[in-house]
């Protein structure tokens, strides 16, 4: 029997942080953030909390390709059973409750039976964190409209409590966070060069065409990651950003500019990024960097490799002949970087759904290299760290089957009192190691620098407090 969600109009805010403040104390609160008004390209923001189910099908430790494929089938069956009969609310409502969370890069290693060269993650949950939500908040910045969408199973009492929260005046308490030491990479320049040269040797031997090699930057912190996220979205706003509260007081923040896969009806779209230049405060230098990226034969060739890889990935799920490159080598500028972006679309086969599409395309080719499996084997051999959520995907699959997902780059994982951030880039035959090493930093350096400003301020305040204390104790 078909069922419809219940819609309630709520106050619209240009900045969805104001709404998230009202629900972020609830369990497993999530915020999929288009960063409007900082990123004018964004349209929808999605917020949810207090999931109805956290016990989704689990992936067993040590699971290989067959077990992983079966796990995706189990998720599809769970989704169908939990949201049976839910019909689309409106073309302007992308989420009416559904499954939301992330798939970590390590899931891709299991899915492709990659033998790990690095130490595995401390927790199998790093491969996936998904919850089932029965309500969501949709902010539509194009229509300047905000609605609370509840599925029929949401009780009248819960809906009333949510509406009371969302319509009440904000009682925001100023949260703070400080980084307790400068960020440092787990890879020295010399170690990066050795790994780079190994990649080059594999390329020249014909093993692969491109490999995405990353570094992991880490530090300690004190305070609330939400304060850091609000700082970061002002510095590096991006249309596929996210803030996810996780078990054990962990938080994942993501400032991603890259869509992985979207599904609306039967239409599939993916928009890989390959090619990056840093932004400059000087307009002439900034325009020069932008033009240089747009005309770079190396970056175009690198982008085209990934376009071909993703066309092949979509070919597993889409109708034959329906796959087209809609935009090739499009220049897109973000607050900290310029990117070269292409967009590929296709029509999903009638007997397939979002879970099969994800399974047969994960992880995104723009963050592995080509060919995908061999590139992933080389990454596992050469990187000394687990990527955790980085280069996986933050995603939702709505109760009515609509899906969108990002490539989880520009990501920071806040765990205990430690924070990790990853940066990487694609290496091809004519790459230079110094430039690739620098590009890893260019992609995240301004984010980490913004957080380190608070560290320097904290050091000054601590030094001042120590001086004042010392003077108070002085006999003079």
What attributes characterize this protein structure?
476 residues, nine-stranded antiparallel β-sheet, 11 helices, globular, Anthranilate synthase, 22 strands, alpha+beta
Structure in words:
This protein is an alpha+beta fold. It has a single domain (6-168, 177-469), classed as Anthranilate synthase. Helices cover 33% and strands 28% of the residues. The chain is built from 11 helices and 22 strands. Strands 1, 2, 3, 6, 7, 8, 9, 10, 11, 12, 18, 21 and 22 form a 13-stranded antiparallel sheet that branches. Strands 4, 5, 13, 14, 15, 16, 17, 19 and 20 form a 9-stranded antiparallel sheet that branches. A hairpin with a 4-residue loop joins β6 (135-140) and β7. α6 (225-235) crosses α11 (433-473). The model has no long low-confidence stretch (mean pLDDT 91).
Strand content: 25-35%
The count of β-strands is: 22
Instruction: Enumerate the spans where pLDDT stays under 50 for 5 or more consecutive residues.
Output: none
> Between the first and last Cα atoms, what is the distance in angstroms?
84 Å
Count of discrete domains: 1
Helix content: 25-40%
Q: Describe the global form.
A: globular
CATH superfamily: Anthranilate synthase
- Give the CATH topology: Anthranilate synthase
Mean pLDDT: 91
Q: Round the Cα radius of gyration to an integer and report it.
A: 23 Å
CATH architecture: 4-Layer Sandwich
């Amino acid at each position: 029997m078909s069922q419809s969600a219940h819609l309630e109009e709520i106050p619209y805010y240009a900045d969805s942080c104001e709404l998230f403040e009202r629900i972020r104390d609830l369990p497993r609160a999530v915020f999929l953030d288009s960063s409007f008004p900082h990123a004018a390209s964004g349209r929808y923001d999605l917020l949810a909390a207090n999931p109805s189910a956290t016990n989704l099908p689990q992936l067993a430790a040590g699971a290989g390709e067959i077990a992983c494929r079966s796990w995706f089938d189990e998720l599809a069956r769970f989704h169908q059973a939990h949201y049976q009969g839910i019909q689309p609310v409106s073309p302007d409502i992308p989420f009416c409750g559904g499954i939301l969370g992330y798939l970590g890069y390590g899931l891709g290693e299991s899915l492709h039976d990659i033998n790990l060269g690095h130490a595995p993650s401390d927790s199998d949950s790093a491969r996936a964190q998904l919850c089932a939500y029965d309500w969501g908040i949709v902010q539509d910045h194009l229509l300047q409209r905000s609605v609370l969408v509840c599925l029929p199973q949401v009780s009248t009492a819960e809906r009333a409590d949510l509406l009371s929260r969302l319509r009440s005046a904000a009682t925001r308490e100023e949260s703070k966070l400080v980084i307790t030491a400068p960020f440092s990479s787990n890879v020295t320049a010399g170690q990066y060069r050795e790994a780079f040269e190994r990649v080059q040797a594999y390329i020249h031997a014909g093993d692969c065409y491109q490999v995405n090699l990353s570094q992991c930057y880490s530090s300690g912190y004190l305070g609330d990651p939400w304060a850091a996220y609000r700082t970061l979205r002002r510095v590096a706003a991006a249309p596929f950003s996210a803030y996810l509260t996780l078990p054990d007081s962990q938080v994942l923040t993501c400032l991603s500019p890259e869509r992985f896969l979207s599904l609306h009806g039967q239409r599939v779209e993916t928009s890989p990024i390959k090619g990056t230049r840093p932004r400059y405060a000087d307009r002439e230098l900034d325009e020069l960097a932008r033009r240089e990226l747009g005309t770079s034969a190396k970056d175009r060739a690198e982008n085209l490799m990934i376009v071909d890889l993703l066309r092949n990935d979509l070919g597993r799920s889409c109708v034959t002949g329906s796959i087209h490159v809609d935009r090739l080598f499009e220049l897109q500028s973000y607050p900290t970087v310029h990117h070269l972006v292409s967009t590929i679309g296709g029509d999903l086969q009638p007997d397939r759904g979002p879970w099969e599409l994800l399974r047969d395309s994960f992880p995104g080719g723009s963050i592995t290299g080509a060919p995908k499996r061999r590139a992933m084997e080389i990454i596992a051999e050469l990187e000394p760290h687990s990527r955790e959520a980085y280069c996986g995907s933050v995603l939702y699959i709505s109760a009515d089957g609509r899906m969108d997902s990002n490539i989880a780059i520009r990501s920071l994982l806040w765990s205990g009192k430690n924070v990790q951030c990853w940066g990487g880039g694609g290496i091809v035959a004519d790459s230079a190691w110094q430039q690739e090493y620098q590009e890893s930093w260019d992609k995240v350096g301004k984010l980490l620098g913004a957080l380190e400003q608070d560290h320097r301020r904290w050091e000054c305040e601590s030094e001042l407090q120590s001086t004042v204390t010392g003077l108070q104790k002085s006999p003079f």
